[in-house]
């Protein structure tokens, strides 16, 4: 447990005001985005890579456990301390000083503490963006540490695909600064070491700076809400639209009727586009986009969308039951309201799963059949990135359901869902939320001994000190 002497030493390294110890000041850093809450020994808020190095070096040398925290928007207890009060939080929220844009290279060197929304606002005049579209507003370091994907993965890929370089502080006695901040897209000169720190939840090192690939902003967009004829037709519809649209297709998002109704209940200002206000059982948000300005004589994207939907509607396979072409900002407002709507519907047990694309709806239908038999009283409110096989599989109980406060019930439910997803469908228990304390048991259970040994060996080489909530 860090004592007063340790706190004084840490303040001497980065300043009195940069070390928080009062409960009221630390509360926001101890409280996660979804139910999890811990107790911190202190919160360190360094403002530079050098200060991060000093804090990490001191804590490793004195056996103090550190939890790196970026925007604290994660959902698997990966950025909050445990309840012991012995862990310190290392926050990136003051690490915002670097912003070096190279428009010719379409790249940005930036501090890891900058939020995604601010980054894209500052890039707007250059007509560029970091193309990871999320409902939350994380900081960049956390996005890299968890390898987030987002709603436009289909077009742009995940954070890993869009990261050119990193600067990382290793958890060793020296607080070694590893500079991997290349702006090159092609550099096949050896081991690509930055990959060790992408998606490993901050346990291999603290990311302090990123070099990011940027993309032109979308200057033409068309969106539609599609009602497939059946769950089995969803993957066929995706394949057909990809064949017709090519790389114009930038999003293919699935939304269950339960999740949509929860969003409408939580945000009454949302426009309900469905006939008579009746929400279908399942809806797909499809987006097509171009980054160029409209050209004279060029077919508009609304016309392109209508043509492709007509083909799907009139085809022999009968893939569509209904379709609504809508304004992009209204359609995306509905999609981004799903998470909060589901969270306010009741007590939530959430999963971040991924499958082969053709297996997503098969898994959902399996859950619809068997969940009521094994765990009655749970509503399925799923939504997610059907275009890349990802699904946010949410189970919601009533707000007064006493079972949710029973750890044995939640653990049993999680184990049952994940086991079917991983063992029977060959899926992943964490599509884009990384590990964290909530997923640690699944990592331990489903990761082979050989891979775990290799990962632990890499952790021992890069950051042997106690760093991060994930145990490799």
Structure, described:
Helix content is 35%, strand content 21%. It has 472 residues and is α+β, with helices and mostly antiparallel strands. The chain has 4 domains: 4-91, Uridine Diphospho-n-acetylenolpyruvylglucosamine Reductase, domain 2; 99-216, Uridine Diphospho-n-acetylenolpyruvylglucosamine Reductase, domain 3 (2-Layer Sandwich); 220-338, Alpha-Beta Plaits; 346-440, Alpha-Beta Plaits (2-Layer Sandwich). Helix 7 (233-245) packs across helix 9 (301-314) and helix 8 crosses helix 10. The two termini are 23 Å apart.
Distance between the termini: 23 Å
Helix content: 25-40%
The structural domain count equals 4
Strand elements, count? 19
General form: globular
Strand order of the largest sheet: 5-6-10-8-9
Which CATH class of the largest domain is shown? Alpha Beta
- Please state the second-level CATH architecture of the largest domain: 2-Layer Sandwich
Mean pLDDT: 95
Assign the CATH topology of the largest domain: Alpha-Beta Plaits
Number of helices: 14
Q: How would you classify the quaternary structure?
A: single chain
Rg for CA atoms:
23 Å
